[in-house]
Amino acid sequence: MGNHEWRRAFKGAFRTLGPMKKASEYRLHAKECRHLAGKMDLGEQRDQLLQLAAHWESLAEERLHLVRRHPELALAGEREEEAAWAAR
User: Fold this and answer.
1) CA-CA distance, 3 to 19, in Å (whole number)?
2) Residue range 48-58, pLDDT digits in tens
3) By the 8 A CB rule, do 78 and 67 touch?
4) 23, 29, 71, 82: which could join 60 in a potential S-S bond, CB 3.0 to 4.6 Å?
């Protein structure tokens, strides 16, 4: 996957970023990064995608802890999604 293709693949993901997302959305972005990285040969871009996936996972954990401390910040359906995720 060339540099141009990599940028185009993530253009939509970064455009949708808003002030707050559910932890499940952060985990979805991480999954997309790992999927793309899996299609690439070893190299700097693949490593960057894996680092980005780790960052998305970190954001998901931060969001989860935030909502646990401040339930009033939960977005619609977020608590139910997290309960289902924890039950896996």
Assistant:
1) 28
2) 999 999 999 99
3) yes
4) 23
Provide the residue ranges of all domains of the chain, joining segments of one domain with +. 3-86
DSSP 8-class letter at 74: P
Give the Cα separation of 36 and 26 in Å (integer).
16
Cα separations in angstroms, 16 against 5, 12, 37, 73, 74? 18, 6, 21, 20, 19
Give yes or no for residue 16 having a pLDDT over 60: no
Q: Which amino acid is at 9?
A: A
Whether residue 40 contacts residue 70, with contact meaning beta carbons closer than 8 Å, is answered with no
Confidence (pLDDT) at 76 = 87
Q: 16 burial class (0-12, 13-18, 19+ CB within 10 angstroms)?
A: exposed
**Cβ 35 vs Cβ 5: under 8 Å:** no
